[in-house]
Write a structure and sequence with these properties.
Bound molecules: zinc ion
Shape: globular
Distance between the termini: 50 Å
Largest sheet: 3 strands, mixed
Number of domains: 1
Structural class: mainly alpha
Oligomer: single chain
Number of helices: 13
Strand content: 5-15%
Length: about 270
Amino acid sequence: MFFRALVPAVPLALLVGCEGGDINLFTIEDDKQLGKDVAAEIEADPATYPILDEQEFADAYDHLYRIRDELLVSNDFEHADDFVWELHIIDDDETLNAFCTPGGYIYVYTGLMRYLDHEDELAGVLGHEMAHADNRHSTEQLTEIYGISTLLSLVVGGDPGLLGDVATSLVSLQFSRGDEAQADEYSVRYLCDTDYAANGTAGFFEKLIAEGDSGYIPEFLSSHPDPGNRVADINALAEDLECNTEYDPDADYAALLDTLPSSGQTQ
Ligand SMILES: [Zn+2]
């Protein structure tokens, strides 16, 4: 009710999704519209976001979409059918990152894809990002940064300058500890319903820890829970749920990497 007093112009119908103390004034349609607008803004800025062409790199996209489709079969998605779950590969070998807009526009950097060793790890990271969108963490965080009235005005009217800012925010959005834990949890739940190792995300964290990567901190590590604890939590949940934790022997990750531009070719 606090929000209503602050923003009297917001119709009552927008007061939805009160869960765990978080109030999300966005509707599902708002999430989709904001995601669509931000995606258009990202597409219009190829210098910052050099997105691989979907036709030219059809094999890479087909492979990623197969992974996505396996994840979306999980009944742990609330918005599998509502959101677009559109994939975009950003051709930047120097960046270990992936992010997902509200409404399900997923972005993954070639730097992250090349860093990983197994398709199960990539599936885990994609699941983690998709979980942020499906649980609508991104809209909540953006609301905290920009305020509800600004964000809703964006959905209604668009504003290229502001959309560019929102896109920049999404790339390095800081989620709460609870949101990160929940995204890790859902990555396990999604993967548990596939042939992938349910703890694939843990493999990524373990590699970061083992190699002592401390330069660029990707979104997955940006917030609090210690990566070592996250590995332990992910493995414990996979065990509790009695999920498979063996990497999928049929996954050919090298084949996926071969479909990307030669390293450094376009940078
Ligand atoms: Zn995250």
